[in-house]
Design a protein that fits this description.
By secondary structure, the chain is α/β, with parallel strands linked by helices. The protein folds into two domains: about 15-240, Alpha-Beta Complex (2-enoyl-CoA Hydratase, Chain A, domain 1), CATH 3.90.226.10; about 265-430 and about 465-495, Alpha-Beta Complex (2-enoyl-CoA Hydratase, Chain A, domain 1). It has 21 helices and 17 strands. It has helices spanning about 1-15, 20-30, 35-40, 100-120, 135-155, 170-175, 195-200, 210, 215-220, 230-245, 265-270, 280-290, 335-350, 365-370, 375-385, 400-405, 430-435, 440-445, 450-465, 465-470, 485-495, and strands at about 50, 75-80, 85-90, 120-125, 160-165, 165-170, 180-185, 190, 225-230, 295, 305-310, 315-320, 355-360, 390-400, 415-420, 425, 475-480. The strands form three sheets. Strands 10, 11, 12, 13, 14, 15, 16 and 17 form an eight-stranded mixed sheet that branches. It has a seven-stranded mixed sheet with strand order 1-2-3-4-5-7-9, with helices on both faces. Helix 13 links the parallel strand 12 (about 315-320) and strand 13. Helix 4 (about 100-120) runs parallel beside helix 5 (about 135-155) and helix 17 crosses helix 19 (about 450-465). The structure holds hexanoyl-coenzyme A. Hexanoyl-coenzyme A binds near residues 96, 97, 131 and 194.
């Protein structure tokens, strides 16, 4: 027995070194953690429970049969975050560039299946050159198996992707199907085709940072949801995110100790009287939520809409809000996608949704029309309309046109719709409206500007207030800003009682 134990320990000590001392030393020189260290840093101390360390690769061609690939380049298992169970895998770039072959994929899919059956989040730490070229179709098949599970698990368990290296090819599509993608400045890269392949196929030189660095995906493409300066900061972000999520769609969401907002402002102080003046919606959010803590998602992308998690009276909520200081909070192609996806995530995981409304509508212009604002804007309406989770909205100032309908209006089955006395609800803003409906009268007037101003004032008086929609029951109550937090807490408490009717057909066809 002792001899066998010693052989076992020798084997383990080789396997846990992945690609070996030299490659590990190179990573250390570059200040990058190993796959195993990443798992240890992410999880609660001493909670990692590894499986499949002894799995061997099955590649036979191009000299692979003569190579040992420790653990086939991926570390898999389970562990705890803040005492809650999670599944995790980390690709090991020191082993054949973290490339994915048949058995590497099988280790990941086994972990995914177990996470799904046991109802816990899965966190993938991705650092991979994509499909292992030497294994041919076996590696493509491996990706297919992962994508299938990403899809089947979507909306069932939270799926989180942390990108910590140059991820290429298939290595980007699995993260793209998951719920949240985390990237680290300068370290993380995502591209379908890597720079070396681009150079050989297109004879074009492109830096991997410009092609798909953390900034590109956080600001331009919208692929990434979180940006940080270091691996350790990313792990803190992952842990914070999980604190707002249930372990599975039908599990309880952890409740925190209720805390009053810490903001030194009152809600009424944060919104200027002049409706043409902008303000920061995050200041508003901070006057409402517990401890004034707002965990923003996709903070660098489509900033005209703000999304993120917070707590009200200890209960997690998702917030979607127009940001008046960017493009006046208008909905455009990217912000519609951003918000619609977040609404669907919250709905799938039974996280109640608070919507804060202040927008002059969908962004006008040929650029937006040609970029598909009709198709993308439709996703917003669809997402809110199908969401059965408790929904509460508050109209702060403007709610014009399609924006009024799309941003969680009563007509889309929002449980409680409130408006502040400053709310203005109309088909469009007074200036544009009067230029259209009184065009002839203004043109023919002795003093067109005076008449225009008079008509604008009349229109504002008639439509740009919350009393007209409240008189029709489209708004449940006009509230004093000071009672906002309390009203919202009560509203969610009531709305949690509803029993949504689930669809009997397969699924709707969201206009993707
Ligand atoms: C096999 C690979 C590999 C791969 C890297 N390696 N990618 N081995 N299959 N896909 C190996 C290298 O041979 C090298 O082995 C080690 O990993 C480290 O790679 P380097 O190139 O030395 O590292 P670096 O300079 O940091 O560049 C990393 C990289 C680059 C940017 C990822 O390797 C690259 O561009 N690889 C190809 C990426 C790509 O285009 N993949 C697409 C695959 S197709 P040694 O032995 O020297 O250490 C695909 C299709 C799926 O994924 C589609 C699904 C939809």
């Amino acid at each position: 027995m002792l001899k066998k134990i010693s052989t076992f320990l020798d084997k383990v000590s080789v396997l846990i070194k992945g690609g070996g001392d030299e490659k590990i030393a190179k990573r250390r020189q570059n200040g990058v953690l190993t796959a195993r260290e990443r798992i240890y840093e992410l999880l609660d101390q001493n909670s990692f429970h590894e499986i499949d360390l002894f799995v061997e690769h099955s590649g036979k061609d191009f000299g692979l049969d003569k190579q040992q690939l420790a653990g086939d380049g991926v570390v898999t298992g389970f562990g705890k975050i803040d005492g809650r169970q999670v599944a995790v895998y980390a690709q090991d770039f020191t082993v054949q560039g973290g490339s994915l072959g048949k058995m590497h994929a099988a280790k990941i899919t086994k972990t995914m299946d177990m996470a799904s059956e046991m109802g816990m989040p899965i966190i993938g730490i991705n650092d991979s050159g994509g499909a292992r070229i030497q294994e041919g179709v076996d590696s493509l098949a491996g990706y297919g198996e992962i994508f299938l599970r990403n899809t089947l698990n979507s909306g069932k368990i939270p799926q989180i992707s942390v990108i910590l290296g140059p991820c290429a090819g298939g290595a980007v599509y699995s993260p793209a199907i998951t719920d949240f993608v985390f990237m680290v400045d300068k370290l993380s890269k995502m591209f379908v085709t890597g720079p070396k392949v681009i150079e050989s196929v297109l004879s074009e030189k492109v830096s991997s940072e410009e092609l798909g660095g953390a900034k590109v995906h956080n600001t331009k493409t919208g692929n990434a949801h979180f940006y940080s300066q270091s691996e350790l900061d990313t792990f803190t972000q992952v842990r914070t995110l999980l604190s707002y999520l249930p372990s599975a769609w039908d599990a309880e969401i952890p409740k925190a100790k209720p805390a009053p907002p810490k903001s030194r402002f009152k809600l009424a102080d944060t919104i200027p009287d002049d409706s043409r003046k902008s303000y920061d919606i995050i200041d508003v959010i901070k006057t409402i939520v517990d401890g004034s803590e707002f965990f923003e998602v996709q903070a660098m992308f489509a900033k005209n809409v703000v999304i993120g998690f917070a707590r009200l009276d200890g209960e997690a909520i998702g917030i979607i809000a127009n940001q008046p200081k960017v493009k006046a909070g208008c909905l455009d192609v990217d912000s519609s996608d951003k918000a619609a996806r977040f609404v669907r995530f919250c709905d799938a995981f039974c996280i109640p949704i608070l919507t804060l409304v202040d927008l002059p509508g969908y962004l006008p212009g040929a650029d937006q029309e040609h970029a598909g604002i009709i198709r993308h804007g439709a996703k917003m309406i669809y997402a809110y309309a199908e969401a059965t989770v408790p929904k509460v909205s508050l109209i702060l100032r403007k709610a014009f046109g399609g924006g009024y309908i799309a941003m969680s209006s009563k007509h889309l089955k929002t449980d409680f719709v409130y408006a502040l006395p400053s709310a203005e609800i109309a088909v469009m803003g007074p200036e544009s409206a009067c230029n259209i409906i009184f065009a002839k009268e203004i043109r023919d007037a002795e003093n067109p500007e005076a008449l225009r101003q008079q008509k604008i004032n009349e229109y504002r008086e008639k439509f740009s207030n919350p009393y007209n929609p409240a008189s029709k029951g489209y708004i449940d109550a006009i509230i004093h800003p000071d009672e906002t937090r309390q009203k919202l807490i009560q509203s969610f408490e009531i709305a949690r009682k509803k029993k949504p009717v689930f669809k009997k057909h397969k699924h709707g066809c969201i206009p993707l």
